Amino acid sequence: MPLVLFYPLWYSSDLAPAYIFAVTTGLFGIISGLEWAYRSWQLWRQEWVRPFGGKKNGFDFFHISYTIGYTIALIELIVGAAPHDPFVRLCAMPAPSFIVFFGSELLLFSILHTLRCKTPFQISSLPKGVPVRPMTYTILEDVIAVDTGAGRAYRKAINERYEASHAFRVLLHRVDLFWSVPALLVGVACMVVAGVPQVPQTVGYGIGWGVPPLWVGLWAVITTFSVQHFLRKEREEWEKGVDAV
Predict the structure, then answer these.
(1) Are 167 and 234 in contact (CB under 8 A)?
(2) Residue 60 carries which DSSP code?
(3) Which residue from 31, 95, 211, 237 has the least number of CB within 10 angstroms?
(4) Positive or negative torsion for Cα 213, 37, 137, 129
């Protein structure tokens, strides 16, 4: 949304830059804030969507991570848009920062999973002291349980699937790797290009807000087809009795 509003207001209106960023930042904050508040309410008030073993009125791990990433992005927007002459380059950083943050988490979980480390605390439905699972597992568990309304029934089902299927465990680890390193590369590259003085600030703003969503869309399409192929292969192995726990 900031990208859609920015260029028409910048080139086709008489609004001062401060007012332009007040509009784009305000709408972004309101819409994303309402989405965050609704998900928070679901976790606070609806026990059947919360993780197993989670505290009453507590968040799941995905919500905590999203809150941290969202806060970082919001701080960049507020600081960048606050001056009378806004820092346009800083206002271009929220989307790259967001994917760098999540890419770092994915990579960290992938490393911990490979090293067979134990969870230092409860991660959604995973209790403290059990082997770390790929972060893709936690994202799937939390998002589908809460945002689609599947609830604890799905949390139980995905845990059973993970424990029963070696192919499924391999798939989730590969998805972590497929998203983590490219997210870091794309995010850092966008930050560098948008931040260098040689690139016009309006171009940098477009790169910062435009490239990450395009990359996410492309990676989502590739992931969807790859996962479908992998799941077909898993089903064939199950039918042949090849899968190993």
Answers:
(1) yes
(2) P
(3) 31
(4) positive
Number of Cβ within a 10 Å radius of residue 83: 12
- Whether 10 and 202 have beta carbons less than 8 Å apart is answered as yes
The partner residues of 123 in beta bridges, in order of sequence, read 126
In this prediction, residue 140 has a pLDDT band, given cuts at 50, 70 and 90, of very high
CA angle at residue 74 from 102 to 187, to 5 degrees?
35
Rounded Cα distance between 237 and 194, Å, is 47
Residue pLDDT, tens place only, 2-44? 788 888 888 888 888 888 888 888 888 888 889 999 999 999 8
CB proximity list for 190: less than 8 A, separation 6 or greater:
92, 95, 96, 207, 208, 211, 212
Q: Which of 168, 190, 170, 188 is nearest to 180 (CA)?
A: 188
13 φ/ψ sector (left φ>0, alpha ψ -120 to 50, else beta)? beta
Q: Is 130 helix (H, G, I), strand (E, B) or coil?
A: coil
Distances (CA, A) of 43 to 14, 17, 52, 121: 44, 38, 12, 19
Are the C-beta atoms of residues 176 and 113 closer than 8 Å to each other? yes
Distance separating alpha carbons of residues 156 and 163, to the nearest angstrom = 11
46-60, 86-100, 181-195: least confident range? 46-60
